């Protein structure tokens, strides 16, 4: 008997996946811009300078004095007041004036500083708007010349989303 050996030489191709594709969509949500609007300016009201001292006006419109200065009428007494509007549910920070500023009557000056706010940083906008009040300390010189004093330029309060 003759046996024959037959060898088959077969090359089998290995099929491998060389690429794949996935899909995605892009989206964006435009939120309400944050804004701040002044509704009343700061006014320390009437003061009798006498021997000088300090007037502290709180964000809650409470005015106290130290030293020899005397509080007179409260007509027009007001912390600076603002309305902040923005996206409900977002938080924001507030930046108050940090330096020393002057109130002037054209001849004499008084220093205003130590600004405070009725809110803290990281404050939440709950109903798309919120009221902020800002107070400060006014340093009155002894025998300050009577008259109307104001800042030569507006002071800035800034709000930013976190």
UniProtKB/TrEMBL annotation:
Keywords: Signal. InterPro entries: DUF4402. It comes from the Bacteria. It holds the Pfam family DUF4402. Residues 1-22 form the signal peptide. This is DUF4402 domain-containing protein.
């Amino acid at each position: 008997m003759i046996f024959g050996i037959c060898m088959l030489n077969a090359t089998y191709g290995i099929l491998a996946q060389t690429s794949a594709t996935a899909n995605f969509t892009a989206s964006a949500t435009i939120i309400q811009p944050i804004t701040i609007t002044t509704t009343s300016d700061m006014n320390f009201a009437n003061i009798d300078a006498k021997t000088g001292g300090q007037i502290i006006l709180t964000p809650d419109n409470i005015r106290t004095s130290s030293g020899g200065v005397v509080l007179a009428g409260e007509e027009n007494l007001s912390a600076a007041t603002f309305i902040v509007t923005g996206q409900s549910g977002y938080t924001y920070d507030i930046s108050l004036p940090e330096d020393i500023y002057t109130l002037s009557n054209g001849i004499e000056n008084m220093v205003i500083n130590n600004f405070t706010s009725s809110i803290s940083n990281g404050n939440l906008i709950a109903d798309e708007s919120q009221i902020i009040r800002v107070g400060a300390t006014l340093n009155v010189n002894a025998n300050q010349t009577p008259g109307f004093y104001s800042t030569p330029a507006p002071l800035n309060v800034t709000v930013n989303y976190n």
